[in-house]
């Protein structure tokens, strides 16, 4: 594995985790949203990850079998959660029905925070990987300069 392949793998992880953090932030921001542009309460969103190659087809053809196993990650798609809405009786709410019930998104703050911490740790691990790669590259350049 060369330096650029390692950077590609880490960069794909950084990109995927940044997107996941954005989705989690959106879920937390809309925890009390009862009216969206599509109609109805906000639907919680989740990301689906997928492995992705780090090489062009030409590069892949030239690599040995061990290096072909290196994969990055990307967001395959973003799905909307189909959990039922929370029903809260609040007759004074502008979106209350004739019985005074309001439908809120079923977003669990604890669950979202756990996902956020996991995504942040993964993001930090990928960032540390990039720093290690940069350090190794810098040390490799110094080998030739010391003579």
Automatic annotation (TrEMBL):
Share an example GO biological-process annotation for this protein: bacterial-type flagellum-dependent swarming motility
Q: Which InterPro entries match?
A: Flag_bb_rod_N, Flagellar_basal_body_rod_CS, Flg_bb/hook_C_dom, FlgC
Which keywords has UniProt assigned to this entry? Bacterial flagellum, Cell projection, Cilium, Flagellum
**Residues covered by the Flagellar basal body rod protein N-terminal domain:** 7-35
Q: Which residues form the Flagellar basal-body/hook protein C-terminal domain?
A: 104-143
Principal localisation: other
Which protein family is it in?
Answer: Belongs to the flagella basal body rod proteins family.
Per its record, how is this protein called by name?
Answer: Flagellar basal-body rod protein FlgC
- Originating species: Desulfocurvibacter africanus PCS
